[in-house]
Request: fold
Amino acid sequence: MPHLRMTGRGLWITALIVPPLAFVALFIVYPIISAFAYAFFDWQGLRRGDFVGLENFHTVLFVEPYRSWTINAFKNNVIVFFALMVLQNGLGFILAYALWRGLPGARFHRIAVFLPVVLSTIIVAYLFKLFLHPLFGVVNISLRGIGMGWLAQPWLGQGNTAIWSLIVAQAWHMVGFPTLVFLAGMQRIPGEILDAVRMETESEWVKITGIVWPLVAPSATIVFTLLFVGAFNWFELPYIMAGLDGSPFGSTDVLGLYFYRTAFGNVSSGQQDFGLGSALAVLIFLFVAVIASVITVRLRAREIQL
Amino acid sequence: MNNRLIRIGTALAAVLIAAPALAQDLTFWSWRQEDRAAYEQFIDTFEAANPGITVKFETFEAANYNTILATALAGGTGPDLMMVRAYGGLENVASAGYLEPLTTETVPALAEFSAASLAAESGRADGTLYAVPFASQTQLVIYNRALFDANGIAEPQTWEELVAASQKLKDAGVIPFANGTATAWQNETVTFGLGSSLMGKDFYDELMAGTTDFTDARFTGALAAVAEVAAQYFPDGFIGLDYPSAQQLFSSGMAGMFIGGSYELATFKTQNPDIELGVFAAPGKTAEDAKLVGLYFDGGYAANAAGANKEASLKFLNYLASKEFGQAFADTLSNISTVPGVTFDNPLLAEVNELNQSSIPYLMLAHFRYGEPSGSVLIQGEMQKLFSGQTTPEAIGTTLTEGLAAWYEPFKK
Reply:
């Protein structure tokens, strides 16, 4: 490492690096560390009480009612992750392939597919809330219109349809992102390889499974990891569409909502508990960090260097 | 003797001359952004009567108000005066010792306030009063007068009449009740706005005395009756209908009744200035059963225990507890002031105030939001289950009692 003298260039570089570094330290590193610290204290409202060691962690994991709330929220996050893996990333891959193959109208669709990603979550959530409105929603009206009124549902009011409504809204919103990443990956596949394949087989299936899929592995690593992190930190869409309580009866509750409720309280429970909230935040952070690292390492290993 | 008089006179004169220089600036925090103009008017009145004291009104987002306030108080940058929530929502701020305890010595007018309103602004742990309560809200049934008249319906006196009235509206192609339950807290409103008279005052008293719990047949029976009415007379797919849509259904005249709080009256008038509203307490089984509304208090005005200008703050609190302020509050903000003796020009408010004379507290908010799980969270989720046929009223009674036993002493076995 070259010695950096505190003159001229060195000073200049220091002056440029220190402010952003200080910013990151103050607004990212410090809050994370303090959340870790908060988790080990007892809190009365916002007043810090005694040091309680791992008590808060024990409470959120093993003491009722927190235990069932934690399990329920975590279970929903897992459902969301796997469902989006199929709906968002799976569909994204198929869409990317179709766009890459240059089917008619590909240029238009490339923009159309990505457009929802640009919309703010609030807009998407409200749109879907309107679509799914039990009386005036376009979904129910259309179903009745084509004589399938028996399929019309109060989508956001039933435990078994609410979470899936949110998942579909989320997938619609974000499907453009994996599509774009996969498409970029496909466009990087060298033409010679594709020519060589064409000599061997006409089958699209072989082309996808044998050539395209392995060669877009770096793209897959990115979208899988980001989806994992996104699914377990999911907050905005359920917050807007279902509310802070994970209505109805916790069937759309996810860790993000549950953490927020516990730390900051909500209208229906006056309690604010920074200790339990911080403990939850730490657990979510550790879980996401560890699993995301594992996913990244495992997926990296299967990437092929051309 | 003379000397002393002169000395006192000089001292008084010095104080009088110095007074403007000692002008005291107070900050006053609130979550009522929409009431800013009214509060600035109230403050002008106060400042005119109390030269030397200025009050600055600052508002913050309602949903996060408690967090913002508690953080500021903890950091020592809190306001001199503030609006605080009631019941469990007060507890967070009050239990940390940030608020100045109030007595009838410091704020004499409080002696006349109703016990229930003072209880709402007292800490549960120490029973100390921390704020001057400002408004009460009532959970009842609001109806569209034009639709009632057109269908020849009078305010129902028994549960049967309520059902018959609903059926009449339904037959006429009007949605009887506009309510939806997709928004969690609406379940609690619907349950107690419609069911309080069925539960009855005796049930409430016995529950408070610890001689019964939520498995009581009066409570579960009320839940069953509410669920039955909901299934028959709420909009199609009401379990997926959110709160704003339900409000629109009612204010647009598509529905005849809305189970809600007295705070809805102003909203409906704003949404549809032509709508003619009426209110009634949902009836009990027979006409003899007391018709009860669910009553609760919104919040109060408190002073910072560590404030620099405590004396001036208390002066302002005394003004906020005065009948003059209460009357202005009721007239400008169309709210039920808690100040005793206030009269209401608005006939609807006068009627709500009348109904308040026969009430039980809005149960979960007033008594069961002091621990986790809160009674509100439980009843909201459980009613959503009941409305979608996934539980029974009896099971809800057990779930509530067992759930609350985690922190509510009388339910602990």
Summary: The two ends of chain B are 72 Å apart (CA to CA). Strands of chain B lie at 24-30, 53-59, 81-85, 132-144, 175-177, 255-261, 277-280, 293-303, 336-337, 359-361.
